[in-house]
Amino acid sequence: MESAIDTHLQCPRTLSRRVPDEYRPPFPIWVARVGRDVTAVVMGYFGVQYRGEERRAEAWATLRAITDGFALDDGPGGWDLTHHVDAQGYDTLIAAAYWRDTATYDRWLARPEVAGWWDAPERLSAGVGVFREILAPGVDRFETLYPFTEGLPGVGGVLDDVSDQVTEHAYWGAMRDRIPRSQTDRMSPDGELRAEGDPSGRVVVRGHENVALIRSGQDWTDTPPEERELYLGAIEPALADAMDFLRDRGQRIGCYSNRYVRNVDADGVPLDTTYAISYWRSLDLLERWAESHPSHLNVFVAFVSRARHVPSLRLYHEVAVIDAGSQYYEYVNCHAATGLLRDSVEQGQ
Length: 349
Known about the structure:
Blueprint: E1 32-33, E2 42-50, H1 56-70, E3 78-85, E4 91-99, H2 102-110, H3 112-119, H4 122-125, E5 129-135, E6 142-145, E7 161-162, H5 174-177, E8 194-197, E9 202-206, E10 211-219, H6 225-249, E11 255-264, E12 270-280, H7 283-292, H8 294-304, E13 314-322, E14 327-332, E15 345-346
Parallel strand pairs: 8-15
Antiparallel strand pairs: 1-7, 2-4, 2-5, 3-4, 3-11, 5-14, 6-13, 8-9, 9-14, 10-12, 10-13, 11-12
């Protein structure tokens, strides 16, 4: 058993963990390991927004144009596709893509085929909206958690290795304790989201210090019928209620945006995997919701009370706390409540 924080990222603590050094967790969990040569990763959410069945073909063609770009030199090491309907009734397709270093991403982004497509005037006259939310947390600013060691989704799929069993889990506060920067920094927020550009066209949102992002996933692909029935009948409804709460009323508790998405294949067929993409003003506020809000506690109770009956269910998450200079959010032809647009303030106000 070892620390979730790899040896080359450990330093003398000035902030204590939530549990004593002799703590031992009740069940095994693993984290993804980052090579010593990696200084930051890139997490990119590339979205297409549309309303009405008559725009579906255009939306899928637009998404395919984005994912075709992933096949170019320096494209992402891994990516997946999702669909969801947002609170305003817009269908949204997202390609979540990951790079294991920022230099590769920067070269890809600078390619004429990529930069030219995003900057083209056609993006402003299209019948669909597009957006890209790009985060590049340093290796000391994110953590992962998996109850399995093969086929890691998300950022884990582009990293280098898997740990031995780790100690920092199965207690409130473990999420923070797994982030290397938490050894010396509370990672408190500073500033506010700022919007630049034309609200009816292209808008760039500038993030503030220490915006928190969590991707939290559920995979019931390999569950036998009785486990699937239990998950979909008793656990998933509580999760969906919590996700709807954050989507519709999370603003009051510090949640900037919450998307509960379902994975789809290249033809749009739903897969048996879902995840939340949730942005928060701070890690503190995310922790507070997880530890004390009824909407999350209902999910916690629903799962814990039935966990031993769904051993084939695969759950995971990744959490990042990102400095202001490592965030970029761009929305083109999107409605005003899309992503981080809703809580941004126009530049100069």
